[in-house]
Amino acid sequence: MKTGECAGSHTHTVQMGKLSLEWPHHFVTVLHPNVCAVQKLIGTNKKYFTNCKQWYQRKICGKSTVISYECCPGYEKVPGEKGCPAALPLSNLYETLGVVGATTTQLYTDRTEKLRPEMEGPGSFTIFAPSNEAWSSLPAEVLDSLVSNVNIELLNALRYHMVDRRVLTDELKHGMALTSMYQNSNIQIHHYPNGIVTVNCARLLKADHHATNGVVHLIDKVISTVTNNIQQIIEIEDTFETLRAAVAASGLNTLLEGDGQYTLLAPTNEAFEKIPAETLNRILGDPEALRDLLNNHILKSAMCAEAIVAGLSLETLEGTTLEVGCSGDMLTINGKPIISNKDVLATNGVIHFIDELLIPDSAKTLFELAADSDVSTAIDLFRQAGLSSHLSGNERLTLLAPMNSVFKDGTPPINARTKNLLLNHMIKDQLASKYLYHGQTLDTLGGRKLRVFVYRNSLCIENSCIAAHDKRGRYGTLFTMDRMLTPPMGTVMDVLKGDNRFSMLVAAIQSAGLTETLNREGVYTVFAPTNEAFQALPRGELNKLMGNAKELANILKYHVGDEILVSGGIGALVRLKSLQGDKLEVSSKNNVVSVNKEPVAEVDIMATNGVVHAISSVLQPPANRPQERGDELADSALEIFKQASAFSRATQSSVKLAPVYQRLLERMKH
After folding, report:
1. How far does CA 462 lie from the centroid of its chain?
2. How do 610-615 and 524-529 pair as beta strands?
């Protein structure tokens, strides 16, 4: 006995010749010489001679298993001894069938005139022997036809299970074909990564039982010859009438009748009937969408149902990934038990009948993409705004659709302004987020240019960041966004002048000579103190600030970052260099943005040359914090605030705010 580690796990291996058994190390203490661990499926007769990869599951298709122990092939128990110490003498193939428990196969062999003498005579053979349960599960009419003509039908059936040389499991490679002893017909072998081996989709139960004249492998089904390719099966089956027409229209029949090993998840007529006629007719009339649809039903390799004991991600010819799994006796696709008939074998693969169509994104309209996404509220807005034609036609577009949570407090009213805003959520090209780059500009149907911002952990278009993977449809791509997008409406100075909250800031900027800077092209992040922020400063501090244009410019430059940082691009902490030279510490926690630990009152007011974030306090550079505080405003500060109302057109035209400014000016005179 030889022990060793099983790669990548805490397991031990016992090796006997070519046979190696593996089990977790907490089972080692109970195992004895030549004992094999077996997983039994609770409530069934199914057994799995377990390898390392399956130990972790401890379940088969979601059902629990129990571990039992049996003598390994070729060994038996001895009274009073531990384990299975006695090696059995090798017998001929006929007798070995009895040793492995394939007594029904042995019985049927006996009924034929020729086969038993062959199995007991000279030569070297391999027999894939069906278990007793496999024979009993055959339909009665099939079994009757075999046993009523033992020297032709039964003999031929048994010879199809035989190969005229010894073939051990280490020779059974995935996708290989063995030549049987019935008319040299092929037997298809698949050896899967999880260790399971299938023979014409029958699972190998017990492998490598040596005989004097060959080897016996026990399998869980009676296998039959395979003569038709996938295309021929499609043409024969009545339930594939629509599929037949679709394959012919797409030109895929050449692939399905050629060499290779594929899995076809074949949609029945019922599957096609479940989708709206309009959708079906659109796809059938569009060669590219039709080919994508059909390719999404073809897996790149043959996958028998018995090989699936847990979830697997399998790639289709279309390039998508399907989650193929199982639940009890049911196979599932993407979690749905939609397979109605499994393991119909073809010469070039295997077919599973499915009763639901698997439409890939690449064959869908934007409307259809959105139906499977968290953007239904936004799509309703586009529909109500009369923009449906853009979402269902053959226009190359990228739709920036805010996710449903954006509208938890309600949706905007449908009017001309909203319609224009929604048009600016449609980009005049079919994009893929992986090709977007920082500083790129995108043209919208609403006539605006939107900018792309790439940050370490986010990808944003203006103030809105992508919240989910792209969905690329036939003509349009869907980007799920984390908020409504607000296109820029002017320069930073235009934004500040147009908002009454910033009239004092505008006056200060103009006094400091920074107007031209914030009007020209650039990339600025402005933390804009509101009027209340200035009014909250102690009078002495405000007096000192406003009495010195150079000092004022220095303070204001500290409020301006030298790149555009929207709220969605802020991680736990970003240090943003200011025009003044010192760095601003910008952070985001629980959806609250802070700068130098001061909360931001409003984020992401977009400008053509930057972004404005409203703040409720005036920030002080680290090296320039005032040491003294006076009680009175200097004359120069009073002059600046006298000019504020004149500088701000918005304030001049605001009936509500004019008295507020009057009272402020009166207070500063006394």
Report:
1. 26
2. parallel
